[in-house]
Amino acid sequence: MTRNLSEMNDNGEYPRAYVYRRIVSAKLFIDEHFGEKIDLDNISDEAFFSKFHFIRIFTNCYNKTPHQYLSFVRIEKAKLLLKTGMPAALACYAVGFESVSSFTGLFKRVTGQTPSAFRITHGERSASIAREPLKFIPNCFAEKNGWRKVGQ
Amino acid sequence: MITKMNHVSVFVLDQDSAYEFYVNKLGFNVHTDAPMGPGMRWLTVCPPEQPALEIALMSIDEGMMFNKDSAQQMRSLVSKGTFGFGVFECDNLLVTYEELKAKGVEFTKAPTREFYGFEALFKDDSGNWFSLGEKSA
Description:
- The complex is a heterodimer.
- Chain A is mostly helical.
- Chain A has 2 domains: 11-63, no CATH class; 71-152, Orthogonal Bundle (Arc Repressor Mutant, subunit A), CATH 1.10.10.60.
- Helices cover 63% and strands 0% of the residues of chain A.
- In chain A, helix 4 packs antiparallel against helix 5 (88-94).
- Chain A is flat.
- In chain B, the strands form 2 sheets. Chain B has a 4-stranded mixed beta sheet, covered by helices on one side. A 4-stranded mixed beta sheet of chain B has the order 5-8-7-6.
- The two termini of chain B are 29 Å apart.
- In chain B, strand 6 and strand 7 (117-123) form a beta hairpin.
- The model of chain B has no long low-confidence stretch (mean pLDDT 95).
- Chain B is 24% helix and 39% strand.
- Chain B is globular, with a radius of gyration of 16 Å.
- Chain B has helices at 15-25, 68-79, 93-102; strands spanning 7-12, 29-35, 41-46, 54-59, 84-90, 106-114, 117-123, 129-134.
């Protein structure tokens, strides 16, 4: 039997929907403003929670503290920038780190590579895709799309 | 013995729009994005924790794969929401539901506790539908 969130309130919403919305809103704020100096205290204020309450619920929702999540987003965005060929120091500041050494240390801990090494590895892959895209496409798809002749 | 699936196709109406949906709304990573000549592009994305499964976002255009009639029929079927391509998983369905809704993703079924699990249904920007389930403990 289907139970459409039997605990729904009179407004047709599941319990604590407003809490999740506030946490999501804080998370989306981090997603959008990761490159700026973010004061996590302000985010908890924006979410109408005490700092302690905010950190506890955020961590419960995303399995990371807000600070850990901010660092995670910054590293993920830095990876994207490095893949475009951006120099490591520029990527560091673009994603909101204030020190190249702390950025490099965290990046290496997370990815196993320094930002520069990561940039070179992915630069080579991008160049290879541009040069020989068919090496990255299963033959059946390439043939079906007419990018490679059957049996070629 | 087959051990894994590493590529799957999802037919989309517009690859630029699909990129925006799958990457910027769902949060998937681009695996390969290669121009393949005028009007053609090989675009694959992966769910963040499943980098070995490439989802090929295949444009439905008249060409080698579809003749004019087939392309028209396929586009019509996709936009009508005929096809369901799979089940995605998340850690917390209510949180993910609120986040995707805030990003403008259209849900056709709110999170619902079924006998087989906790699930919601959403549509991509073309009309393909997916189930979204919560990882069981």
